Amino acid sequence: MATFLYRLGRLAFRRRHVVALIWVALLALAGAGAVSAPAAGNASFSIPGTEAQRAFDLLEQRFPAANADGATARVVFKAPDGEKMTDVGHKATVDKTVKELSGGPEVAAVTDPYTTGAVSRDGTIAYASVNYKVSGIELEESSRTALKKAAQHARETGLTVEIGGDALFTTPETGTAEIVGIAIAAVVLVITLGSLIAAGLPLLTAIIGVGIGVATITVLAKPLDLGSTTSILATMIGLAVGIDYALFIVSRYRAELAEGREREEAAGRAVGTAGSAVVFAGLTVVIALVGLSVVNIPMLTKMGVAAAGTVAIAVLIALTMIPALLGYAGRAIKPAGERNGLLGRGRDGKKDEAKDAAEGEEKNGTKPGRPNMGTRWASFVVRRPVVVLLIGAVGLGAAAIPSSSLELGLPDDGSQPTSTTQRRAYDLLSQGFGPGVNGPLMVVVDAKDSDDPKASFAKVTDEIKDLKGIVAVTPAQPNETGDTAIVTVVPRSKPSSTATEDLVHAIRGAGADIEDTTDAKVLVTGATAMNIDVSQKLNDALLPYLALVVGLAFLLLIVVFRSVLVPLKAALGFLLSVLAALGAVVAVFQWGWMADLMGVEETGPVMSMMPIFMVGVVFGLAMDYEVFLVTRMREAYVHGEKPGQAVVTGFRHGARVVTAAAIIMIAVFSGFIGSSESMVRMIGFGLAVAVFFDAFIVRMAIVPAVLALLGHKAWWLPKWLDRVLPNVDVEGEGLRTGQDAPAEDRALVRA
Hints:
26 helices, five-stranded antiparallel sheet, four-stranded antiparallel sheet
C-alpha cells in the first residue's frame, strides 16, 4: 500500500493542475446541485419492528383521512391576569383565529377549544389543534407564515399566544461558536506547522471536502428523506477528520524535507507513510459510522452513511489534493525545524549548517540534545508506568460513574430554549392542563378479528381508566368500517419521565390480557411511545453494534500493527474513554452540572441516539490517534529499538502532531455546542469531551504505560497468523529498504 500511495502522491504533485481542477469541478458541480435542490426538512421517523410503528402503519391503513403523518401545531391562548378565556371578547378572538387557520390550503382540520374541552379548569388557558395534510418536511413556508400571522393577530387583542408542534420546524443554527472552533483550529495549525501557508492547506482541503459532502447531502435530501441534522453532523465530523488527516500528511512532508529530500520525493513519501495511516484511520471511522445500520433505524443509518461519505471524501482529498497544493506552495512550506518570519527568524545556508547537523544527529539518536516535550513525557511514563496507568484508569473510572444513571429519551418542545415559542407553548400547556398533555398516548384498538368490536372498544377504555398515572381518557373513536378505534390517553407525568414510560408498559400489559379475552389487539403509539421504543431498540442494539464495529476494527488493527495485544489494548482504552464521556454528558445534560455554561436550560434524559452514535464516532476517531501514534512506535521497534525506547521515539515524532490534531477536533466539536438544536449540542459536547479523554488520557498516558509494561510481548503475533496476514506496510518499510523504490533511493540503501 505504501508504494501505491507513494506513487499517487508523486503523481498528484506533478499533475497538480489536473488534480486541483478535478476537485474544484466536483465542488462546483455539487454546489450547483445544492442550490437548485429543495431544502432539507425534518426527516420522517420510523422504527421498523416496534409496536409504536406497527400502530402508526395501521392508522394509515384504517384511518386514511386522519393524515397520521401530517404536521401538527397547537396554538395556545392565555388570558391576561384576572380574566378568563371564556370571556366573550376572548372567545370571539379564538373563534376568529380558528376560522383564519382553517383557510389554509394545506390545513386538514382545526379544533375549537370550546367544543373539544381544551380549556383549563381555571379558564385561563385554552388551545386549538391544527392538523395538516402534509408532513413537516413537505409543509410550505406559506403555511408556517399563515400560522404565525394568525397567532400575531390574536396577540394584538391582548392575549398571550404561543405555538407548539412540528409545524414550526426550522433548520437548526450552529451559531458563531462554530466559527470560533475553526479559528482555534487555524491558530493551532499555524503554531504546529510554522507558517500561514502550511496551516492554510489543511483548512482549505477540509472546507472543500466538507463542501462537497454537504452539498451532495443537500442534493439527496429530498429523494432520500435526509433531515437537516444529517448535514450538520457530516459537517462536524468531516471538518474534524479533514483537518487532522491533512495535518498528518503536511507534517510528514516537512519531516521528509528536513531529511534533505526533493519536494516531489518528499510529497510521495509523506503520502506513502502518513497517507497509509490516514487510509486505515479513515477506514475505521467509516466502519464505525456505516455500522450504525445494524440498529435498523433508517434515520440513524442515513446519518451514519452520510457522515461516512464525508469522511471518505476527506481521505481522498488528503491523499491527492494535499500533495497537489504542496506543489503549488513550493518553498513557502519549510522543512521541519525551520520557521518563516511570522513565528521567528528562519535558518539559512552555511550559517546554520552546524546547527542542522547537530539536530540531524539528535534525530538519529547519536547525540542526546535537548528532548522535546513529547520525549520528556514519554520518558517519564516509561519510568513510572504503573503510577501513570493507575492515575489514568482511576480518573476515567471516576468520570464514568454518572453513566450508571443514564436515562434515554428523545427531545421534545420541553427541551427547547425558553426564548422559543415552542417552549413557551409547552410550559403554558403544562401549567393549564398538566405536563402529560404535551405527550398524549394514542391507543389503537384493532378489533377486526373480534366478534363484538364495540364491546372490545368499551373494555379497552374501561381497563385503561383503572390504571394509575392518567389524567384523562377519551371515548373510543372508531373508523368508518367500525373495526378499529383510537383512544387518546393523557398521562399525569411529562412525556420524557420514567412514570410515563411505566404507564406505556402498563397499557401494553393490559392490552395483552384484553387480546386473550376479546381477540382485539391493543397497540400504543404517538410521539411518546415512539421515543420509548427507540430507546429500547437502541439499548438492545448497543452490544451487537459494539461487537461488530470493535470486532472488525480489531481485525483491521491486527493487520496494521501485526500484533494481538496492541489492538486489544486500543479497544479497551476506547471503552474507558467513551464511558467517561457518557458520564460527562449525563452530569451536564441530565444532572445539570455546569448547565448554564453549556446553555442547557432544561435537564432531562439523554437523547436516545447519543450513546450509540457517540460510540461509533469516538471509536473511529480513537483509532485515528492509535494508528498515527503507535505506527511510529512500531516503526522504531521494527528498526531494532527496545520496547521502552520505541515508545519514546514514537512520542518524539508523533506526540506534537497528535496533540495538535486532538485540540483541533475538540475545537471543532465544541463549536457545535452553540447549536439551537439540542441533539447537535449534546453530540458536540459529548464528542469534544470524548476526544479529550481518549487523546490525552488514553492515548497519551494509558497506551504508553501499557506498552512499557508489556515490553516485547506487546508486539507478539503467532507465527501462523503472521504468515496468513497480508503485509500492508503502513510504515512504508518498502520505501526505506529500497523495495519498489526509485533508483536513487536503492543506491543510498546499498551504500
